[in-house]
Amino acid sequence: MDKEIFTDSTDVICAIATAPGVGGIAVARVSGNEAFAVCSRIWHGKDIGQMPSHTAHFGTIRSNNDEIIDEVVLTVFHGPNSFTGENTVEIAMHGSRWIQRKIIDLLIENGARMALPGEFTRRAFKNGKMDLSEAEAVADLIASSSRAAHRVALSQMRGHYSKKINELRDKMIELASLLELELDFSEEDVEFASRQKLLDLAKENASVLRKLASGFKTGKAIKDGIPVAIIGHTNVGKSSLMNALMGDDRAIVSDIHGTTRDIVEDTAEIGDYLIRFKDTAGLRETDDPIENMGIDRSRNAASNATVVLYVYDSSTPTSIDEITSELEGIEPQSIIFVENKCDLPTANENLKNIINNTFLGSVHIEVSARREQNLEELKKLIGRQIEKINADINEDSVMVTNARHAQAMIAAADNLDTVAEGITTLLPPDLIAQDLREAIYNLSSITGAITTPQILQSIFSSFCIGK
Ligand SMILES: Nc1nc2c(ncn2[C@@H]2O[C@H](COP(=O)(O)OP(=O)(O)O)[C@@H](O)[C@H]2O)c(=O)[nH]1
Ligand SMILES: [Mg+2]
């Protein structure tokens, strides 16, 4: 399916743009140079051709034998001042399934065709209304399920991200053109492009790009859920805590040690973030091979988590040595110690102080999963820990949330390393220019200044119809 499937981009396309199913109102989108003519054939009301852009009008949609299908509100947008850049009509109808289907059928009978997935956004890209990373951000914005994910997608859609990429690229283009100029004067042995400046730029851009790409882990976590692992001994109440935080009986709770053997995962929205909680098998010495596999997974989950909830049982004596060995290799700043079962008499009088002195930067909280005590405070603590770790996320920060972009950045950084090496080893300008051009090419693929039909196909086909 490498073939370009968006064959004729001058067709009038139509689709329901609201969520599938029954709703109070549904909206059909119609786009294309002849969109007004197509809609006029089924619309009874003011002359669409005479409507000023960005105005809404009441009227009816009628079938070919003049039967009224629905009373609707029709909004017109004159190209290029529309989402797609083309003449566009949006028909807000009553949300019955039958009306939705009937109006789409009528539009098709009268000269429109069904839009392909992502075709509206693809036309917007083609008509220069947005670049590729902005178009991808439209999909992310629609899918965003937390405030933080929304913030990152909105910033990308509004072009902050592209601006940063283009700044990096423009500097490289400038130097590349100076290098190419030298090629025209090759007999005269002149240097238009200062080698020192070029070297500095290559090194600086490579490091900026690597740093951006390394933020992909955080960016992806914000989009798909920030991993928070719940670990600790068996029977301390990890699964109870997971259930209490989710408000759902997600994991099996019992007083039998070693009940949870695999990772139980679920997401919940806490504050601004979507959190992906992972309840794990309890840590203990055991001969059971299956349980041991589960314990390995627990350790793995802990080392890949943004925040680790280390749960211990207030009513059972626990030693700091055990805790220290179980948390080996985990950053203290990412740990929240959760003293559970605080409804029972404590057997760990001094442990909290010892923990605080051993794990500098960690935080501690007492809860009862069973009685649901202090859980709101725990949620706030989780939010605050994440906020601290992601301190640099704000409206204007540039965050990579897309694997395609991270790959392109790393490829461009590798090209720049080769450029730097070429300069230090006094390579002729045509060879340096070639590597520089490749770096520019890789960066350009992010915003779509340079693309192949295959890239476009894979991006837009993941959209829904109507977007
Ligand atoms: N008293 C009391 N018991 C609890 C609390 N949380 C969990 N438990 C009990 O501790 C036992 C182990 O709980 P579970 O969640 O399965 O622990 P896990 O092995 O760490 O996942 C169960 O009998 C729970 O009912 C609590 O806050 N207070
Ligand atoms: Mg459990």
Poorly predicted ranges: 1-7
Helix content: 40-55%
Total of helices:
16
Shape: flat
Q: CATH H-level name of the largest domain... which superfamily?
A: P-loop containing nucleotide triphosphate hydrolases
Tally the beta strands: 13
| Rg over CA atoms | 29 Å
Strand order of the largest sheet: 3-4-5-6-2-1-7
**What is the domain tally?**
3
Rounded to the nearest angstrom, the distance between the terminal CA atoms is: 21 Å
Q: Order of helices and strands, N to C?
A: EEHEEEEHEHHHHHHEHEEHEHEHEHHHH
Walk me through the topology.
Layout: E1 13-16, E2 23-31, H1 35-40, E3 43-44, E4 55-62, E5 68-77, E6 88-95, H2 97-109, E7 113-114, H3 119-126, H4 132-143, H5 147-157, H6 160-184, H7 195-214, H8 216-224, E8 226-232, H9 238-246, E9 264-270, E10 273-279, H10 289-304, E11 307-313, H11 320-326, E12 335-340, H12 351-358, E13 363-366, H13 375-389, H14 403-424, H15 429-447, H16 453-460
Parallel strand pairs: 1-7, 8-10, 8-11, 11-12, 12-13
Antiparallel strand pairs: 1-2, 2-6, 3-4, 4-5, 5-6, 9-10
Helix pairs in contact: 4-5, 5-8, 6-7, 6-15, 7-14, 14-15
Bound molecules: guanosine-5'-diphosphate and magnesium ion (MG).
Structure description:
- This protein has helices at residues 35-40, 97-109, 119-126, 132-143, 147-157, 160-184, 195-214, 216-224, 238-246, 289-304, 320-326, 351-358, 375-389, 403-424, 429-447, 453-460, and strands spanning 13-16, 23-31, 43-44, 55-62, 68-77, 88-95, 113-114, 226-232, 264-270, 273-279, 307-313, 335-340, 363-366.
- It has 16 helices and 13 strands.
- Helix content is 45%, strand content 17%.
- α14 (403-424) runs antiparallel to α15.
- The model is unreliable at 1-7 (pLDDT under 50).
- 42% of the residues are buried.
- The site of guanosine-5'-diphosphate (GDP) has 20 residues, from α9.
- Guanosine-5'-diphosphate (GDP) is lined by residues 234-240, 253-255, 259-260, 282, 340-341, 343-344, 368-370.
